[in-house]
Every structure is written in C-alpha cells, then in structure tokens.
Amino acid sequence: QKEVEQDPGPLSVPEGAIVSLNCTYSNSAFQYFMWYRQYSRKGPELLMYTYSSGNKEDGRFTAQVDKSSKYISLFIRDSQPSDSATYLCAMSLYSSASKIIFGSGTRLSIRP
Amino acid sequence: DAGVTQSPTHLIKTRGQQVTLRCSPKSGHDTVSWYQQALGQGPQFIFQYYEEEERQRGNFPDRFSGHQFPNYSSELNVNALLLGDSALYLCASSLGGIGSYEQYFGPGTRLTVT
Which of the four, A81, B67, B73, B85, has the lowest number of CB atoms within 10 Å? Predict the structure, then answer.
C-alpha cells in the first residue's frame, strides 16, 4: 500500500465549475500537507500549505485536512482553463522543507 | 531573482553508463533536495543536502549519490544506469532553518536511458 493515494484522473470539467481533488494517506504522523500544481514539462509549484487539521483559503483555492480520517482535499472555485494541470498532493513529517511524500497526481482539464 | 536552475534539460544515455545532473538553488537558499519523477507518477524523494552533507535519504540504491558545493549548488550522480532510471529528475531548494516550509522546484532534467 502506498503512503499517499491519489486518483490519477483524468478529470475534465467545464469552465466555472467547482473542482474537488482528494488524497488519502496511511501515516498518521504526517503533520504538513501541501498541494502542488505541475504544468506539462515544468517543475511542481506550491499552491497551498496546511499544518495539521483544518481549512485554509487562498483566493479561489481551499485546502482541507481531516487527520482523523487521513483525508485531504483541494477545492477550486470558478475554475479557469488556465487551471488545467496536474495537481499533486504532498505531505511531510517535520516540515514541508524536509522529505516530501507525493501522491501520483490528478490530471485536470478545464473545458472552455 | 533567478529561481532554481537545472542542467542539462534533456539527456540520453546508454545502460551501464554514468550521468551527472546539476542544480543551482534559488538565491538565498542553502538546502537542496533531489526527486525522481517517472512518467505519470508523483516525484519520489532521493536525498537532501544541507551544509554540504547528505541530511536525509529516500529508498534509492547507492548507485545514486550526490554532492553539495560551498555555494550551495548540487550534483546528482547515477552510476550503472538502468532502463528504469529513465525519468524527470527534479531539484528543489529551500532554507534549512526551523520554520522554513516551502521547497521551490526547478524545471527538471529529463533522462532517457536506452
């Protein structure tokens, strides 16, 4: 069993829709939870960062962490074609600057 | 302000050969981490260098080795290349101090082993 499980998609939604991306994990010691966005032929770019449980909002993006269920989510409101990319959930034990464990990524396509 | 840079962009090698990949961290960063990303997969942690020492290591064989220089740049070396080593190799830089939380990734080096 992988430490972090993520549905690979692909996921295709119309422009303006709300997108929900999810990951589950097995190691209850994870404390730092992140979402990265990766465009084709580029390196991952940090979108959201959360410590422990709770919600965090940044513009159109909301990250949720439920440590009791070992489940994290990323919501994208008013999705735009420019949001089309692969979204990687990631987590680490001590800080997000230490070893990061990534999910396999969900490929998202926003249809104009 | 230059971000993380990696060289070369692409590389083709033959099984059994050795390869060296290079990374320059973002200005002001002192820690470099290396990741391997196979096609359709998330990045996998190889190792991290801080103060010219390997600080953490993932589940990669000893064929994978690295180095960090006094200017914080880093090299990743892979010996006795296997077909399965074909992947995108990503370098990420960060600040090594407590409380630092963000790793900045470079564009990667795409290695093809034939």
Answer: A81
